[in-house]
Write a structure and sequence with these properties.
121 residues; mainly alpha
Length: 121
């Protein structure tokens, strides 16, 4: 039963992370910083990491005490990514891109951390 609850909590956290952390849409005003093939590799690797994470949850047999700590850190990281993405709004770009005319964000989580997206990941 505890393993099922843990798995469900981690899957919800993974869904939040994927929704906010892996926003790979090409938005208006984005300029590539690297060749498209490098960005494609980065997207594939990111999807592979998410798939590996889901696989580990799927094959989970039992829990140890450190899993509670792992869950807390995972939830905190996903919450930080979600807050940072929300604060950036339309200024958010995916790795390998930049905005042509970005807006400097100093409020919210960016008032405390310089790179909350990286810290959350």
């Amino acid at each position: 039963m505890w393993a099922d609850l843990f798995r469900m909590a981690e899957l919800v956290t993974l869904a939040v992370f994927v929704r906010y952390g892996l926003d790979v849409r090409k938005k208006q005003g984005m300029t590539p910083l690297a060749p498209p093939w490098l960005t494609r590799i980065m997207k594939i690797v990111s999807c592979a990491v998410v798939a590996l994470y889901a696989y580990v949850l799927w094959t989970l047999q039992g829990l140890v005490w450190t899993d509670a700590l792992a869950l807390a850190l995972t939830v905190a990281g996903a919450a930080l990514v979600g807050a940072a993405k929300h604060e950036l709004g339309a200024s958010h770009t995916w790795t390998g891109y930049c905005m042509e005319s970005p807006r400097l964000v100093l409020s919210g989580v960016y008032g405390y951390l310089r790179h909350p997206l990286y810290a959350g990941v």
